[in-house]
Amino acid sequence: MKNNTAQRAQLLHLTSLSLANGMKSGSFRSLFRGQGMEFSGVREYLRGDDVRAIDWNVTARMGKPFVKVFEEERELDVFIIVDKSLSMNTGSGIQSRLETAMDCASLITMASLHNGSPVGSVIFDGKIEFSVAPKAGKNQAMLILSELDKTDNQIVGSALDSALRGAEKLLRKRTLVFVISDFRAAGWETPFAHLCQKNDVIAIKITDPLDDILPSLGAVPFRDPETGFECVLPTSSQKFSRAWRDAAENRNEMWKKECHRNGGAPLSISTMQDPAAELIKFFNTREQYSL
């Protein structure tokens, strides 16, 4: 596993460098580097200083006016929530949803390492499989990559809601959070809203062409990988095809509205797309997204 992880990290190196540059430059930099100011010390009052910045305790102690000095907040910690539930194993594109999600998470992990940013993660299927608070350094990045590479038997169901709640409790400061999932689980909306209140959240929805259009193959047996529900889909029926497409559009619109309503940024990446290219494009064109 260590050799596989090391090889994967080496392959990701050049691509993640481009991603790291995108995360630190352009219109996205204001988000990645933090949106607030942090206290760094005091200095003597100078003519023209804002009187609201006067530190009255220090002023009283020193006998002359001092003002508080603030600096731009340090680079945000990065936290990656990754869905490994059974529904992520599906896909008709270049690769499965899960493989696309793993690529996204790995690239973000390596980009954070290049930028010197603390990075943490929670990985889940039907239960929480792995969780680690943000920490800087190569060892931390390699640990996360190693966990992403694991192919243990997946537990039925999706613990997306638990992962979101756990992240909210784990993160002690404002953090740049990536939620990578197909968002097919129920009950994620409320913990997602809570997570957005104190963090900058980017929701990456992994999609597939079959979400919108099914090929006309007649009566096709269907089985939900997580619930076990089985039925037969009349894929050659135009009425069914329209209903399938409309339902997909409605789900996607509701997901986007939920993200925007809570201040999160929605980003869809298809199994037919290059995850690195889509992430870099997103970071370099942040003004196109309502964050």
- The CATH class of the largest domain, by name, is Alpha Beta
Helix content: 40-55%
Radius of gyration: 22 Å
Number of helices: 9
Largest sheet: spatial strand order? 5-4-3-6-7-10
Average residue-wise pLDDT: 85
Biggest sheet architecture = 6 strands, mixed
The number of distinct β-strands equals 10
Low-confidence stretches: 26-35, 287-291
Order of helices and strands: HHEHEEHEEHHEHEEEHEH
Tell the overall outline: elongated
Helix- and strand-based class?
Answer: alpha/beta
Count of domains: 2
Q: Provide the β-strand percentage band.
A: 15-25%
CATH architecture of the largest domain: 3-Layer(aba) Sandwich
Distance N to C terminus: 38 Å
What can you see in these coordinates?
This protein has 291 residues and is an alpha/beta fold. The protein folds into 2 domains: 2-26 and 74-288, 3-Layer(aba) Sandwich (Rossmann fold); 37-72, no CATH class. 41% of the residues lie in helices and 23% in strands. Strand 6, helix 7 and strand 7 form a beta-alpha-beta unit. The longest helix is centred in the C-terminal third of the chain and has 24 residues, at 238-261.
Q: TL;DR?
A:
It contains nine helices and ten strands. The chain has helices at about 1-25, 30, 55-60, 95-115, 140-150, 160-170, 190-200, 240-260, 275-285, and strands at about 35-45, 65-70, 75-85, 120-125, 130-135, 175-180, 200-205, 220-225, 230-235, 265-270. The longest helix is centred in the last third of the chain and has 24 residues, at about 240-260.
